[in-house]
Task: inverse folding
């Protein structure tokens, strides 16, 4: 029997230092829809009003980002995420947390049960993720 596809949605807020600068980049806040895993998946960022800001897709052949009808190609999921949110947000850590699996990443501090707060000091990045209520219920049912 095949595993059901993994899907999550919720709200996300990101603050990060701009690459090559001591200044903070404009903050990103809104909704997200995440499907799949590290090897194959999709991530959609939405504005607070629900407008699609960016759609990321990845598989074993590479990754793409679609913004305002234009598609860019990348080598892998980390490259497309880093270019999209100006930070090396560890996708594997985010996916593990949503699944309820501890996954430390060097330089990142993750805390919270119903709120993921991941923080890296150098370069500064702070991510807050709040899954939708249904996603939390699925996580709680799947947690031993």
Result:
């Amino acid at each position: 029997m095949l595993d059901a596809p993994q899907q999550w949605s919720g709200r996300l807020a990101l603050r990060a230092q701009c690459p090559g600068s001591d200044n903070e980049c404009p903050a990103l806040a809104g909704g997200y829809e995440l499907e799949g895993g590290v090897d194959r998946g999709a991530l959609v960022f939405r504005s607070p009003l629900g407008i699609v800001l960016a759609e990321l897709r990845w598989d074993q052949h590479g990754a793409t980002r679609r913004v305002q009808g234009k598609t860019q190609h990348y080598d892998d999921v980390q490259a497309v995420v880093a270019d999209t949110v100006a930070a090396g947000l560890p996708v594997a850590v985010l996916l593990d947390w949503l699944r309820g699996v501890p996954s430390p990443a060097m330089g990142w501090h993750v805390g919270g049960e119903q709120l993921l707060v991941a923080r890296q000091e150098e370069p500064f990045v702070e991510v807050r993720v709040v899954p939708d209520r249904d996603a939390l219920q699925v996580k709680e049912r799947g947690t031993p």
Remarks:
- The CA atoms of residues 27 and 98 lie 22 Å apart.
